[in-house]
């Protein structure tokens, strides 16, 4: 049975690594072959093929349910029902609309919407909304969060922005009771305690501040504030434990078998908590696992513990094959696998403190390669933080919060219990915040292909029982993790990364021993692209220091990520074309015409001295490596371009189009003078300014310049000085990225 389960699981998991989905005919052919092999000795291969077909078919269904390309960017009226709890953040409401209808077109089953300064929404309401729909698409940058992958895992077929709307039907209590519970909790708690309790009771973490999420990430305790298997298992364990206590105290009726009742009550408690939490994917996984554990406890203990674990994994993947696209799937199942490896077959007994320490050390070591493979931060304080946080949350906060919610109908009792839970959680955040301020999380550089598999083998050997000689080889296999070496440009060369940041600009230039960032990308309300995209991408490249940060001018699409980047990296020098409007408290130098050399690469700054408007004050940067030139122009207009050409009548190989391709820039005379070989557009997909303008495209076509667009190709990488073709992030194929 274990072999059969393993082959099916491997077949489904292979979906994650597909660059594209095969044709339906190919799936049918493989499925028939797999079924034909089942009655024979080659049945494991048959189950492998069936798992692959099952996962691929599910992915094909989700991809096929996406918004029609012809509707991308169109504004339509649609009707639908709000599901889940709406998320409120900085005047923006984000929510999911299911089964949306329009009389003229077919719409996806699940649509994720944002409504800026929208009306209050409740779960279960039906609304008629005017929405600008978008195909599920996101920015693509090397080694950063993949938004398109996340949308695919959530089965989201379209995104959109609400322009206006009105309520068609109020929600019924049956569909809105979770929202009403949330309102009740908020009414009985002070503002600084609400978000954490709501997150633990209802699984809605949207109220937690960005700083709180940062603290949880830095200390490796995010799993405590998102209802997961730990919380569900804890409640079920409490119920099971109390039944066992009654039995041992002789208080249980002898005529009633205690074991089936204990398992049944514990499972009901888990399902009740799962219902309260909205039955998100982690909760479903936990409930399935608990159900199998209780069945194993009642009837199948002779099978051991590995078989139920594999059965749970197979069932979860059978129910939702796309679960493997989520980091939480890998972290939860790998954590359980580590516990099975560490505690199964151990004969020694230790006290609870040593056991807890052993558990945290094992989880930290075991999950290290998984976190690195998933490009997640590694918390260096996680073992200590979890030793403190897990007991507080598990045995104080969650029980008090659930009891307080249950007794809200009793005056003062529910409020008092919730307040105690909130106070304990608030104190815990203070402790975690102090730890995070001392030792932040480690964002590891990108490793070579063979390093992570070797590390996985290494931690497996390390976690084996003491006394086995092979454990020593585990440390050898993990050794490369501590000695990564980034590939740096050679003397006289530079690597240029034009980040895909939507409607904005951010360009990283690296030489052999220096790094410069030109602009920091935009920020939109509570979403700072510099913090979410540019900073992680630089940290993954091993950059902890910027020699120079150039902010072309003060517009938010160029300077939006300034504070986030400056606070996280050691920035030695900041230069801007608009110092007075930058709204920044630390010293910033004004842009002055100057040149310098780094590692055989020449950098030249320029600013139009007669400029009066903000865009024309942009600080222009010219980079030259082995006579191959890159020109970054900010948002300058045609007049500033002409002024630059008069002072620098030279050929440009790579030109970042001024003002994202605005009609007021990239004049014909300017292009004729510099004769660019390739123009780079940094802009957002379906941006409201319609950049680049069609006239600008015609001008570049007239001078026979190649066109590269971050909105189409993702981040762009240039090896300046080697005269090589450009590298596009979207050239790395993934099945969820449909061009």
From TrEMBL:
Location (main, coarse): membrane
PROSITE patterns, sorted: PROKAR_LIPOPROTEIN
Keyword Metal-binding among UniProt keywords: no
Keyword Transmembrane helix: yes
Subcellular localization: Cell membrane
One CC-aspect GO term: plasma membrane
GO biological-process terms attached to the record: establishment of competence for transformation
Membrane topology: Multi-pass membrane protein
Residues passing through the membrane, by range: 41-63, 258-279, 300-319, 325-347, 359-378, 384-409, 416-436, 442-464
Record protein name field: DNA internalization-related competence protein ComEC/Rec2
Species per Swiss-Prot/TrEMBL record: Entomomonas moraniae
């Amino acid at each position: 049975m274990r072999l059969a389960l393993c082959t099916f699981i491997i077949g489904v998991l292979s979906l994650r690594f597909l660059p594209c989905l095969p044709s339906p005919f190919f799936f049918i052919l493989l499925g028939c072959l797999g079924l034909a092999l089942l009655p024979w000795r080659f049945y494991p291969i048959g189950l492998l093929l069936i798992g692959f077909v099952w996962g691929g078919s599910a992915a094909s269904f989700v991809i096929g349910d996406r918004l029609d390309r012809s509707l991308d960017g169109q504004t339509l009226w649609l009707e639908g029902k709000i599901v889940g709890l709406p998320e409120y953040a900085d005047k923006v409401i984000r929510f999911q609309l299911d089964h949306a209808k329009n009389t003229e077109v077919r719409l996806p089953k699940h649509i994720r919407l944002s409504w800026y300064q929208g009306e209050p929404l409740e779960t279960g309401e039906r609304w008629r909304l005017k929405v600008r729909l978008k195909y599920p698409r996101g920015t693509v940058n090397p080694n950063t969060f993949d938004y398109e992958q996340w949308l695919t895992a959530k089965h989201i077929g379209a995104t959109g922005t609400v322009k206006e709307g009105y309520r068609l039907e109020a929600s019924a209590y049956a569909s809105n009771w979770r929202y009403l519970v949330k309102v009740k909790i908020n009414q009985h708690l002070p503002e600084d305690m609400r978000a954490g309790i709501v997150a633990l009771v209802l699984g809605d973490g949207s109220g937690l501040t960005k700083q709180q999420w940062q603290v949880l990430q830095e200390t490796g305790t995010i799993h405590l504030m998102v209802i997961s298997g730990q919380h569900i298992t804890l409640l079920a364990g409490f119920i099971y434990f109390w039944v066992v206590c009654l039995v041992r105290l002789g208080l249980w009726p002898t005529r009633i078998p205690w074991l089936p009742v204990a398992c049944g009550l514990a499972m009901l408690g888990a399902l009740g908590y799962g219902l309260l939490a909205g039955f998100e994917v982690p909760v479903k996984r936990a409930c399935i696992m608990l159900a199998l554990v209780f069945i194993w406890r009642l009837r199948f203990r002779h099978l051991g513990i590995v078989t139920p674990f594999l059965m749970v994994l197979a069932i979860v993947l059978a129910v939702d094959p796309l679960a493997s696209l989520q980091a939480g799937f890998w972290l939860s199942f790998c954590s359980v696998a580590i516990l099975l490896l560490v505690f199964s077959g151990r004969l020694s007994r230790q006290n609870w403190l040593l056991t807890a320490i052993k558990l945290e050390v094992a989880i930290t070591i075991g999950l290290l390669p998984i976190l690195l493979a998933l490009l997640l931060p590694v918390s260096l304080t996680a073992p200590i933080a979890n030793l403190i946080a897990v007991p507080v949350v598990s045995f104080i906060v969650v029980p008090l919060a659930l009891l307080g919610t249950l007794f809200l109908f009793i005056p003062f009792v529910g409020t008092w219990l919730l307040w105690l839970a909130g106070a304990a959680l608030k104190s815990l955040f203070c402790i975690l915040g102090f730890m995070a301020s001392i030792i932040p999380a480690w964002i590891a550089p990108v490793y070579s292909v063979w390093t992570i598999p070797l590390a996985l083998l290494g931690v497996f050997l390390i976690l084996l029982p003491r006394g086995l000689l092979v454990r020593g080889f585990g440390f050898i296999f993990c050794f490369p993790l501590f000695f990564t070496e980034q590939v740096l440009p050679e003397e006289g060369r530079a690597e240029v990364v034009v980040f895909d940041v939507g409607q904005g600009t951010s360009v990283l230039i690296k030489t052999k021993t220096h790094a410069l960032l030109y602009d920091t990308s935009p920020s939109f309300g509570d979403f700072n692209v510099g913090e979410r995209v540019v900073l992680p991408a630089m940290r993954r490249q091993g950059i902890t220091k910027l020699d120079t940060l150039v902010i072309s001018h003060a517009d938010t699409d160029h300077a939006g990520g300034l504070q986030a980047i400056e606070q996280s990296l050691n920035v030695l020098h900041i230069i801007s074309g608009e110092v007075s409007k930058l709204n920044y408290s630390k010293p910033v130098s004004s842009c002055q015409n100057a040149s310098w050399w780094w590692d055989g690469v020449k950098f030249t700054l320029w600013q139009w001295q007669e400029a009066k408007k903000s865009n024309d004050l942009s600080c222009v940067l010219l980079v030259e490596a082995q006579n191959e030139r890159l020109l970054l122009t900010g948002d300058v207009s045609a007049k500033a371009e002409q002024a630059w050409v008069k002072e620098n009548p030279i050929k440009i190989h790579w030109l970042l189009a001024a003002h994202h391709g605005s009609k007021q820039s990239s004049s014909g005379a300017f292009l004729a003078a510099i004769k660019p070989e390739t123009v780079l557009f940094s802009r957002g997909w379906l941006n409201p300014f319609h950049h680049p303008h069609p006239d600008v495209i015609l001008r570049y076509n007239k001078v026979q310049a190649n066109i590269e667009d971050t909105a189409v190709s993702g981040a762009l990488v240039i090896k300046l000085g080697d005269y090589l073709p450009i590298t596009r992030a979207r050239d790395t194929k993934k099945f969820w990225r449909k061009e």
